[in-house]
TrEMBL record:
InterPro entries listed in its UniProt record: GH (IPR017853), GH13_cat_dom (IPR006047), O16G_dom_2 (IPR045857)
Listed name of the protein: Alpha-amylase family glycosyl hydrolase
Residue span(s) of domain Glycosyl hydrolase family 13 catalytic: 11-384
Family: Belongs to the glycosyl hydrolase 13 family.
Keyword Translocase: no
Domain of life of the native organism: Bacteria
Molecular function per GO: hydrolase activity
Length: 511
């Protein structure tokens, strides 16, 4: 059963979901205590951000041991208990996997620094001599995704000038060398370790990374020697071959590749099951842009017979309720886009807090923790603030201690408990949408060859579509004026209709 083709995944950003032990940081027992909520919400699977041993320079994306749980989140028993309980609630559990790099505190990297140039220890990473007088310049001009050079020089050594090591992210995240067979063997061990414990799959971080075009290897990607090299597909085939020994497990890639043809290569028959599209999250609230993003992704995955998977937000981008505009307009648009996302054929990813319509938090500089992100002046902290559960509790029920990021006052009216009681809340909208998606016959499409979606004619600034073979129509109005509804009975509307018309910033499902 290919359960993941149509599944709704819920991303738990573990530090910000629920804290069970009062240290102000979310943890595994905290998640376990919210499984009732997640079942009520109606999600099919969780995606947990990294729970592995880490010095937390990048909130767990810098890993010292891929097969150990950091004590801040809990321990292996807590993982086992969480998986067992989630399964009892009918919810699957997928975990983040970070194969591109380790922490600079990983035993391998420490051993590399302590070993001579050319040693097997160094070969697990990318060490190169510098350029220029005394090797004082980086080996090449590559930039890190977080800003600055992608190379850092190791501390001076007795044997001569230190080498430089490659890090596509922060200097605390040295890149592994994917031409080294030990690196492959270690990932295979990690996959089996977690699969044997019962995880239902992996979200693979920077799945278009890993292999690089260094040292004059001919380029295979159009324009970026750091990412999307042909060799990475061998890594995904290896991952898939391992997963295929375990029934019903899924590999999902965070594939940051814009070119549709190259994107599709990641979801060929013997590679990843799903690749998360990022174009929808990058689109403005504009029917043309949204439609183009949808078409691009559907054409790409359709060309190799894979299912699409849709994401509006995650822990790296501004939340929809802020991104699409400030105040009530942003909220209305985020609600409308949720209906678009959840009507599309394929899997969907929700990011914790989006079901509450949380806006980004405007944090004072001294409260910010994301030190590694240098895209403009923004950090990613604004979308990572802890989840509000209940207005009357200290820290809104997130923790009994001091939350690791301050929770803004305007989250008080967005608590889950209050929203569950309010039929007009964003949480109620999500719950209803997920229920209809699961149960309404209008969503059930018989398998059919050809395009997964049909577009209808729509006024300028609007779009309307249905999943091929179903009766469910979704219409979105991004224009400044109300427009007539397409034919059908409205099942769910993201905001009030205006005299039987679909108002601006609103979406509707009809059957
Ligand atoms: C991915 C993660 C991001 C992290 C980076 C480095 O882009 O989503 O949060 O900082 O990888 O691991």
């Amino acid at each position: 059963m290919q359960w993941w083709r149509d599944a709704v995944f819920y991303q738990v950003y573990v530090p910000s979901f629920t804290d069970s032990d009062g240290d102000g940081i979310g943890d595994l027992q905290g998640i376990r205590g919210r499984l009732g909520y997640l079942e009520l919400l109606g999600v099919d699977a969780l995606w947990l951000s990294p729970i592995y041993a880490s010095p937390m320079v990048d909130n767990g994306y810098d890993i010292t041991d891929h097969r150990a749980v950091d004590p801040v989140w809990g321990d292996l028993d807590a993982v086992d208990e969480l998986i067992a309980d989630a399964h009892a609630h009918g919810i699957r559990v997928t975990v983040d996997l970070v194969p591109n790099h380790t922490s600079d505190q990983h035993s391998w990297f420490r051993a590399a620094l302590a070993s001579p140039t050319g040693s097997p220890e160094r070969d697990r990473y990318h060490f190169r001599p510098g350029q220029g007088v005394g090797g004082a310049e980086p080996p090449n001009s590559w930039r890190s995704v977080f800003g600055g050079s992608a190379w850092t020089r190791e501390p001076a050594r007795d044997e001569g000038p230190g080498e430089w090591f490659l890090h596509l992210f922060s200097p605390a995240q040295p890149d592994l060398n994917w031409t080294n067979l030990e690196v492959w063997a270690d990932l295979d061990k990690t996959l089996r370790f977690w699969l044997d414990r019962g995880v239902d799959g992996f979200r693979i971080d920077a799945a278009h990374g890993m292999c690089k075009q260094l040292d004059g290897t001919p380029p295979s990607s159009d324009d970026d020697p750091r990412f999307d090299q042909d060799a990475v597909h061998d890594v995904h085939r290896m991952i898939r071959a391992t997963l295929d020994h375990y029934p019903e497990r899924v590999a999902i890639g965070a594939v940051g590749v814009r070119n549709a043809t190259r994107f599709a290569r990641y979801v060929r028959q013997d590679e990843l099951h799903l690749a998360v599209d990022t174009q929808l999250a990058a689109s403005r609230f504009d029917a043309e842009e949204v439609r183009a993003a949808i078409e691009d992704c559907l054409n790409a995955v359709g060309s190799v017979g894979a299912a699409a998977s849709w994401l509006l937000s995650d822990h790296d981008v501004s939340r929809p309720a802020s991104r699409y505009g400030a105040g009530p307009v942003g909220t209305a648009r985020a609600r409308a886009m949720a209906l678009v996302q959840l009507a599309l054929p394929g899997a969907a990813y929700l990011y914790n807090g989006d079901e509450l319509g949380l806006p980004d938090a405007d944090l004072p500089d001294e409260a910010r923790r994301d030190a590694v992100w240098h895209h403009g002046e923004d950090s990613r902290d604004g979308c990572r603030v802890p989840q509000p559960w209940e207005a009357d509790l200290p820290a809104y029920g997130f923790t009994t201690g001091e939350p690791w990021l301050p929770i803004p006052d305007d989250y008080a009216v967005l608590g889950a408990a209050e929203q569950l009681e309010d039929t007009g809340s964003t949480l109620s909208l999500y719950r209803r949408a997920l229920e209809l998606r699961r149960e309404h016959p209008g969503f059930q499409a018989p398998p059919s060859p050809g395009p997964a979606l049909e577009w209808f004619g729509a006024p300028p600034g609007c779009l309307a579509f249905r999943r091929t073979g179903t009766t469910l129509v979704c219409a979105l109005n991004t224009s400044p004026a109300p427009v007539p509804l397409p034919p059908g009975d409205p099942l769910l509307v993201s905001g009030p209709l205006d005299d039987g018309m679909l108002p601006p910033d609103t979406a509707v499902w009809l059957a």
